[in-house]
Each structure stands twice: as structure tokens, then as C-alpha cells.
Design a protein that fits this description.
This protein is α+β, with helices and mostly antiparallel strands. The chain has helices at about 35-50, 55-60, 125-135, 140-160, 165-205, 225-230, 235-240, 260-265, 265-290, 305-315; strands at about 5-10, 15-20, 25-30, 65-75, 80-85, 90, 95, 110, 210-215, 250-255, 260, 295-300, 320-325.
Length: about 325
Amino acid sequence: MIIKKINLKNFRSHDEYELEADGLTTLILGENGWGKTSVLEAIYIALQGKSFRAVDREILKRDAEFYVILIKLMNGEEVRVSFDGVNKNFLIDGKKWKRLPRKNRYPVILFLPSDLNLISASPGRRRDYFDALISQRDEKYARAVSKYKKALKQRNELLKRENVEIFEVFPWNVMLAEYGWEIFETRKKEIEKINEKITESYRSIAENSDTVSIFYKTDIKSKDEYLKILENDFLRDKILKHTSFGVQKDDFIFQFNGREAEGSASRGEVRSIILALKFIEADEIEEEMNKKALILLDDVFSELDEKRQRALISNFSDNQIIITSTSKPEI
């Protein structure tokens, strides 16, 4: 067990809110619009340092001057997050931080209803999903993604200028090639690892002989070629006013029995694939970080049949789980 108690003040719709974690599994019941997801969001901010859906000004309750999140952990530590309308601070063991230090972050597996649509979602949504999945375990990768996005933004801003010259974008080309190649290599290795496990994980849920894999779709071949293409595409990108080549264009295609899962896998099969992916995520966190992730399930039980509900709870039986739902699950 990780979390013992949660207190919120002026957080989204909550004036004041308190939750005592009840053993390994805690159920938060309430109607839609009550603010159940906000509780999970607050936990995520305290343990990961940022929201999974908004900026702080959007989180602050209307007409309030500040919000506070206080999380009491089972080891006796407290994490206090405060936002005064301008600045956010983290207070841990009496020490204040502008950002949550990496050493004070705790692994979280967040399961949202939208995750069940990952297979049919946009390529950008899938990239964000896998980038977040890898970044939680790999600080070096997280830095590479952050630096790549900043460099991409700078290059794109230059491309919007009418008289921009090729030499002006060259430093950003170099950075994009450097960090883009690092991102490509890490993504490739991650998908290879997932593909070694995902069919077995899927079969443990579905209890059949179907096969599942993920195809990493990319045009990246080498770091040198990456830089060369950026240079060669300058005039084209200048007309388009954005960078047309790079890892920001990659995609992750789910395959089911050798065919693209979107269109060939049934609704239930798609849900089993996503569950399998979540189970692998938990296993990799435990293997690499030697910690059992906190599991946050946001109203996903209504989207799963009883068989998959049982698989979900069974697989995470040793993890602390916090569940939101509009009705009590029948398992």
C-alpha cells in the first residue's frame, strides 16, 4: 500500500475533500460530474508532478485563489502540492520544490476510458501514450522527448518566417536528428520488449490462441540520414511552414492475428489487447524500478464485461488500486 490519506482544497469542483485509503483497493462512488476523476488527477499530480489532462489554472476552483493537495503516504511521508494562481510548489519533508524531483515520483498506471479506444485513436494519441509509458521508467528518454519537442517548436517557428534562411534552421536540424534518433532507438527497443510478452498476456485474459503484436511505423533509418532529410526538406517545409519529417510522424499499429487490429478485432478483443498492454506496463515497472505501481482506474469497469473485470483485479491483486465508478462493481 502506498497512499494512506488524501485531502483536497479548492481543487476543481471540490471545496474540501478527504479520502481515507481502505486497504489495497479503494472505491470512489459517485454520479457523473461529481468530481471522481479529479481525485485521481490530484493523486497523479502529487506522485508524478503534473496533471494528465489540464494546466493548473484550469484545475483551480472557480473564484478560488489557490488549491492544495495533501497526500499522506504509508511510509509516513507527506506530499503537499499548492498552486496560488501563478506558481505551483511541492513541499516534501519540509523542503520546497518548484517541480517534483524525479526521486520523489512514484510510478502510476492510469487507466482511462479513452485508453480503450487507443487502437482506433489518432497517431498522435498513440505516440503520447507510448512516450508516457516509456518516460515513467526512463528519465533519459523523458529528457530526449522534452528537448526534441522544444527544438521542433523552434524550427517550426522559424519556418513560419517569410525570409528564413537554411543556415538559421541548421542548429535545430542537428538537435532534431540527435534527439530524434535517441527517441527512435528507445521506442524500437520498447516495442520489441512488448511484442515478446503481449500475446501471452492477451491469451491469459482471452483464453484462446489469438496473436497480438505492435508494428512501429517509422521512416527513420539512421542519424546521418535524419539530418540529411531535414536539410533537403528545407524548401518544402518552408512552404508548409512546419517540419514534415521526424519521429513526430511515427505511429504504433496494433496487429491481431497478423492483420491490423482496427477493423479486424472485435470490441471485446480490443479491450483484452489494452488490458494486456496495461499488465505488461505494470510488470516492466516492477522489473526495472523494483516498485509496484499505484493503479488508478477511472470508470473503466462499466466498459468491461465481468470476465475482463476479474482479469483486471486479479492481475493487480498485489498493487494498491483506487477505482472510480458510478456503481459498485459486481465482482
